[in-house]
Amino acid sequence: MRVTSMAIALSLCCTAIPSAASAAGNLNMVCSADVVVCEHMTNIFSKAHPDIKVSMVRLSAGEAYARLRSEARNPRTDIWWAGTGDPHMQAAEEGLTQPYKSPLLDQQQDWAQKQAENSHYRTVGIYAGALGWGYNTKLLASKKLKEPKCWADLLDPSFKGEIQIANPNSSGTAYNTLATLVQIMGEDQAFDYLKKLNANISQYTKSGSAPVKSAARGETTVGIVFMHDAVAMEVDGFPIKTVAPCEGTGYEIGSMSIVKGARNLANAKVWYDWALSAEAQSHMKEAKSFQLPSNRNAEISEYAPRFENIKLIDYDFKTYGDSAKRKALLGRWDKEIGASAQ
């Protein structure tokens, strides 16, 4: 009787723990690109690797970072693909992601490899894109507003209630904007600027690309976003014009990270290597993703904003990817901007 009871207990114990074989066909991914891009790339990967079942959840970069922190003791995510590099760097610093050097690393642009080196190979750059905004040309004309060419132009009182930007707590785009302005102006001056800009903001959205989509629909005049998101609206036929700020602007290095303790590590590496390939990155433009790909041999869309045509700052990814720096800037934003946000 004791033997039977022990056998039953052992059987229950063993069936409660998934075997390596049962997990081999799964991949749990958080994607921080536009949902259309997330779905497109997932479908392309699934066709190339039909033996791997991908469960994809789309979250903004700030939300994805928060999820990794909340799951740290019991990770349910295997890989985090796309989204601005700052929160990927923060996750790396906090040990939420694990090192991996892909055999395709040497095919990547220098900025992508530097992202990997700075994080001790806990993340890697997969695309890059400059910060700017898009405005609705029809609304601008009908409301007799002056074309905003510079950061300073967005403070004009005539733009009251005409601008949208995301919340930097949830959006990597908005955090990149905050960090960019601090680097251009200095921290105190940047927060003075943001307080004045707040008077013209109609909504702080959850998603980084949402503001220009609202502008495309005629719900707001200006959306502060990465330029490639504004270009995507132009290509879709909406009356959107894309602007690179005259004073200079920052840029993102969209990144990818394998989660520490990933349950499906082997499959996470399969996605990782595939996503760094020229073939995979060449598919992104099919979903109207107009960033600059990290693989030197990947096809670049004719619509992608080129860095050589934009006045870029020397964005300090290491400093503004630091967890303490992020916490301090977001804390100040919450206190001085978020608390009085319209």
UniProtKB/TrEMBL annotation:
GO BP terms: thiamine transport
Signal peptide boundaries: 1-23
Listed Pfam families: SBP_bac_6 (PF13343)
Keywords carried by this UniProt record: Plasmid, Signal
One GO CC annotation: outer membrane-bounded periplasmic space
Keyword Signal in record: yes
InterPro entries according to UniProt: Ferric-bd (IPR026045)
Protein name: ABC transporter substrate-binding protein
Species of origin: Pantoea sp. BJ2
